[in-house]
């Protein structure tokens, strides 16, 4: 029998580059007490059983930042694939320019609109770093 080289489970997380009229992207700071606390990430979260990644994102944007959008307003941009200690993260990154409402942190996290060229000033999880050039190219 073949050995399974990497037994870590794959975790599917959907994330969103929410873009404003000035081509800035919303970053959210992970709260104290959570894994990767203090790092700046794209809004999003785990895809639950029975959800598509797009449906999960519509839900997460509402729950985390009080913003309403639709599945049709999410376009695929790129993805992250990164091995953490206990799981392998697979994270599609969508881009969204059409949404309603002004983002307000619903879970006490700090939010910040950031130009892609300035993202290096905001420490991000290691999975996210390879995504920055895609945003710089696009925006
Ligand atoms: N939302 C989001 N998660 C990211 C990014 N980069 C990155 O490595 N992650 C990781 C952090 C977490 O391990 C996982 C997202 O899970 P989550 O935010 O739903 O869950 P959590 O760790 O806050 O834990 P939980 O209490 O909600 O279960 O993906 C990112 O840019 N956005």
Topology:
Blueprint: E1 10-18, E2 25-29, E3 40-41, E4 44-46, H1 53-65, E5 75-83, E6 88-96, E7 111-114, H2 132-138
Parallel strand pairs: 1-6
Antiparallel strand pairs: 1-4, 2-3, 2-7, 5-6
Bound molecules: 8-OXO-2'-deoxyguanosine-5'-triphosphate (8DG).
8-OXO-2'-deoxyguanosine-5'-triphosphate binds next to strand 1 and strand 4.
Bound molecules: 8-OXO-2'-deoxyguanosine-5'-triphosphate
CATH superfamily: Nucleoside Triphosphate Pyrophosphohydrolase
Number of strands: 7
Q: Averaged pLDDT, please?
A: 96
Q: What is the number of helices?
A: 2
Uncertain regions spanning at least 5 consecutive residues: none
Shape: globular
Cofactor: Mg(2+)
Binding site for 8-oxo-dGTP: 30, 41-44
Pfam family, one: NUDIX_4
Binding site for Mg(2+): 44, 64
Characterization of this structure:
With 139 residues, the protein is α+β, with helices and mostly antiparallel strands. It has helices spanning 53-65, 132-138; strands at 10-18, 25-29, 40-41, 44-46, 75-83, 88-96, 111-114. The chain is built from 2 helices and 7 strands, in the order E-E-E-E-H-E-E-E-H. The longest helix has 13 residues, at 53-65. 30% of the residues are buried. It catalyses: 8-oxo-dGTP + H2O = 8-oxo-dGMP + diphosphate + H(+); 8-oxo-GTP + H2O = 8-oxo-GMP + diphosphate + H(+). Pfam families: NUDIX_4 (PF14815). GO terms for molecular function: 8-oxo-7,8-dihydrodeoxyguanosine triphosphate pyrophosphatase activity; 8-oxo-7,8-dihydroguanosine triphosphate pyrophosphatase activity; 8-oxo-dGDP phosphatase activity; 8-oxo-GDP phosphatase activity; metal ion binding. InterPro entries: Mutator_MutT (IPR003561), MutT-like (IPR047127), MutY_C (IPR029119), Nudix_hydrolase (IPR020476), NUDIX_hydrolase-like_dom_sf (IPR015797), NUDIX_hydrolase_CS (IPR020084), NUDIX_hydrolase_dom (IPR000086).
């Amino acid at each position: 029998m073949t050995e399974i080289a990497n037994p870590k489970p794959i975790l599917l997380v959907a994330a969103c580059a929410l873009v404003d009229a000035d081509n800035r992207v919303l970053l959210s700071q992970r709260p104290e007490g959570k894994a990767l606390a203090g790092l700046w990430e794209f809004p999003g979260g785990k895809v639950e059983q029975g959800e598509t990644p797009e449906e999960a994102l519509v839900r997460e944007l509402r729950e985390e930042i009080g913003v309403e959008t639709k599945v049709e307003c999410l376009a695929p941009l790129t993805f992250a694939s990164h091995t953490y200690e206990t799981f392998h993260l697979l994270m599609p990154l969508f881009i969204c320019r059409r949404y309603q409402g002004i983002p307000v942190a619903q879970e006490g996290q700090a939010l910040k609109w950031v130009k892609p060229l300035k993202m290096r000033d905001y420490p991000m999880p290691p999975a996210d770093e390879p995504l920055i050039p895609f945003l710089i190219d696009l925006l």
